[in-house]
From TrEMBL, chain A:
InterPro entries: FIST_C (IPR019494), FIST_domain_N (IPR013702)
Domain FIST C-domain: 231-359
Domain FIST span(s) in chain numbering: 30-230
Transmembrane segments: none
Superkingdom of the organism of origin: Bacteria
Protein's name according to its UniProt entry: FIST C-terminal domain-containing protein
One matching Pfam family: FIST_C
Organism of provenance: Heliobacterium chlorum
Automatic annotation (TrEMBL), chain B:
Protein name: Uncharacterized protein
Top-level taxon: Bacteria
Amino acid sequence: MKHMVSVFSQHLSPEGAVREIAEQIKSQAENIKIVLFFASSKYEPLIIGREMKKAFPDSIVVGCTTAGELANGKVLNESIVATALDDHIIHDVAVAVIKNLSKDINVTEAFGTFERHFQVSMQEMDFEKYVGLVLVDGLSMAEERLMDIIGTKTDVHFVGGSAGDDLQFKTTFLFCDGEVYTDAALLVVLKPGVPHEIVKTQSFAVTDRILVATKVDEVHRTVYEFNGEPAAEAYAKAIGRPVEELEKYFMCNPVGLVAAGEPFVRSPQKKDRNKMVFYCNIIEGMNLYVLEPTDIIKETSQVLDDLKQRRGQLLGIIQFNCILRTLELLKEGRLENYGELFVDIPMVGFSTYGEQYFGHINQTATMLVLGE
Amino acid sequence: MPGRIKQIIDKVVQVKGRGNPILIKSTKLKFTLKGIDPEAYTMSSPDDPLLIARVEDIARSFGVPL
């Protein structure tokens, strides 16, 4: 039996897909502590949520809808992927739902659930013994505030992604033990029984061109001015392109908040007259560096090589990969190459509407890596 | 007296970091993501009242007494 199993199904019906998922997992794993699954929005969410819990009544079952799925060596669409983690790899786990994100974000109840379960306060919880997963409604625009609040109230590192809906941008769903939520976030605290680490990788080089956000609307992720000039004009000048053609360069020239030498990517979404709207918020006064693209396949491969060198055998990876990276790889015809990087590691993940690690980021892959 | 902003940041990093390099790094990163670059301030940085209020708010949110 395996400690971490990753499987997928492309069965057309939600019941059939869950049946195939359950058969594959049950034939390879036992003593399952948690089942994590990511499903295309083509499946009826109420049925998927209910059937997955029915299939694994004795385990915690959580997941979300996606903008594409990842399992082992494949980058998928219109599928459901799942992983089962046994009691060797995960000694203990608890899950909590934060509802009504658009009204207010309050983690007190969720953190109370974890504190009662693990018998330790979230302030005191040892970040080396515990790790958090976070799945968020990808259309809530609440990720920054949620991650900020989590980060001020615990040292435990949370990694995760924003749920998708196959680029329809209508509704995303979260699944927790048979229930289905929107406008919500799921927090999972894991106590791994094996060494673990969080990886963040983005394929960009930091240039020396700086844009200072001098006038912003943080709530709406909109920048009015960079360097005291209309945002679009200043950005155009910084990337050396005509302002009328800006949107063509958004994908390859996002901007980055640089901390500890590495960028936390903020991707432009659209130009609105002279304003620029981003996929995550920018705070007034922030120094942002123009980024230049590097090779996603090459850099991700280096990250995995480094992990294998340091950790030896990897038991599994849970991956949150930005949909913009997926689209870039699709455009380059290299989706298969990306999947193949993970062919020898049990891995599940999904194409997200944003990634979470300390904050909310874009054009990044965040991963929870479990090793022996 | 200049340097108040750096003093507050240093206090938060000291309390939250507890001497652990990973916690020190993550506390500084959390400051950066909140829009305050901890490396940008020195003991010569002027005492901008608005910035002082912001870093005091951050210290309070971390539960660090000043």
